Amino acid sequence: MAREHGPFDIVIDDGSHISRHVIASFDALFPHVRRGGMYVVEDLQTSYWPDWGGNIDPTASGTSMSMIKSLLDGLNHQEQTREGGPAPLVTEQMVTGVHAHHNIVFIDKGLNTEERWPPSGWFAGASSAN
Asked: What's the pTM?
């Protein structure tokens, strides 16, 4: 469907709301959202419901909310220390905004290429000044 009808300006995930389905849908469809487009996931309350593949522990992995939290971390991938570590994920490079509201999130797609702030070495003398 995505190859035939995409790229899309907006995708709204109003599917099964089961965490593994939400994650699978995002992985399959987000690449087909055009730059400047938006991906929406609603009914995120199910991320906390065990019967829906969620977990009441907000730090649990494998839930739709944990996917959203990783997208938030990815927004700031430039500031994460990764020397010799893994290269930025595709979503880290392509998610430019995550706007969360009660039980719904709006994910902006674009190029996340902003320079690290502050620039590397900017604090080089700060620790010795104290």
From this structure: 0.81
